[in-house]
Amino acid sequence: MSSEFQFAGKTVLITGGASGIGAATTRAFASNGAKVAFTYVTSTEEAGTLERNFNGSERQVMGIKADMTDPVSVADAFGKAEEAFGPVDILFANAGGLLKRSRCVDTSLELWQEAIAVNLTSTFLACQLALRSMEPRKSGTLVLMSSLAAFDGGGPGASHYAATKGAVATYIRALAKEVGPLGIRVNGVAPGLIGTRFHDVFSTPEGRKATVERTPLRREGTPEDVAEAVLFLASERASYLSGEILQINGGLGMI
């Protein structure tokens, strides 16, 4: 991981930050001087490893078990982060997931509502809490997790997931307009095929191979590819970028 970005003195909160893209981004921010609080639900072992790797004589990384779809749990997570490291300067709203593949005609209302909760409501709650702290200071940066699925409709059985990620993409632009006058920037990332547990669970080896063959760069992305983009968007190097969504897919989004 590069050390080109400087985040010393910054407090970062990453939702879903113990594994995959979230963990890579937690490591990246911490390696570049930030104090990082991250939330997780089930990745207890991974959370402990991240804390051990970065916490020496001074605490730099803290894991917080939290359900980001629950307002009380979200408020508790922000409270713990701010108590440990101070007001949140940067939010990476990363928590979310596909849950399961299901054709529209077979998708239950329960699955539809759960997809909205996990991908959209979790993002809304995290942004709301972050902005309540950022607006009085007229400073802060939000980076939200969308997906290539928001632009191409996603793979088979992912219409519910694509719909929520499309909503996140629209939310990014709406928030950028709303809080830009206060000096707060809002951007997003939209990964394509990234080699994480997500695709280990929800994609077949044959499907992944076929996607790579359609990708101009002819490889899967890595969590670090996405983390570098998040750091750029959160940094002063992107100080005149807001309402943008970086598609990180090796060129697949052009096809």
Automatic annotation (TrEMBL):
GO MF term set: oxidoreductase activity
SUPFAM superfamilies: NAD(P)-binding Rossmann-fold domains (SSF51735)
Residue intervals of the Ketoreductase domain: 10-197
PROSITE patterns named in the record: ADH_SHORT (PS00061)
Enzyme class: oxidoreductase
Gene3D superfamilies named among the record's database cross-references: NAD(P)-binding Rossmann-like Domain
Keywords (A to Z) from UniProt: Oxidoreductase
Pfam families named among the record's database cross-references: adh_short_C2 (PF13561)
Organism the protein comes from: Microvirga arabica
EC number: 1.1.1.-
Entry superkingdom: Bacteria
Protein name, per record: SDR family NAD(P)-dependent oxidoreductase
The organism's taxonomic lineage, starting at the top: Bacteria, Pseudomonadati, Pseudomonadota, Alphaproteobacteria, Hyphomicrobiales
Transmembrane segments: none
